[in-house]
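re: that chain from earlier
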Amino acid sequence: MSQTTLSAQHAHDHEHEHQSHSVFGFWAYLMTDCVLFASLFATFAMFAMQTAGGPTGKDLFNLTDVAYETGLLLTSSLTFGLAMISATRRKSGAVLAWLFVTFVLGAGFLWLEVHEFAHLIAEGAGPQRSAFWSAFFTLVGTHGLHVTIGLVWLVVLAIQIVSNPEMNERELRRLACLSLFWHFLDIVWICVFSFVYLGSVV
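^ sequence. v structure.
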């Protein structure tokens, strides 16, 4: 076997090993995020009735707006899936288009969430009002922070795709990791919608 062939094989093996470590590391990160959100959900459950005589979730939650938030985030998960399908076909233009739609939907979700927070604070239900509202703002705010990080990550990947429209395995791997992260946030939000909002109102 020639030296060139050996060098190419070594480079391929090194890249494969690097990919394996990257994917494993990202899964490990997601597991730590699962623990984080599980702790926040447990904390919210502990303080669900601790309103200190102030307004409750049933008094102030607007399920219509929350349903819009849920629709936007779930739809963004679909559009990200379409971006991944386009990526496997190496159609960088379609990938960028679907990532743009995903960004708009995610930004819309964040705008509604900020609007909800402002409304609650204006109604005297800020995080300092009671243990219930502190737990609520911490849980939902942490999810919103993750969505914000996801949007920044999405923009960075889009810039990388523009600079490298051929989309090599590195770009595909990065997109796949962000896709896992984004779908994970959808699952967390479904739990928030069911446990926090519906549970508090019903």
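The chain has one domain: 34-201.
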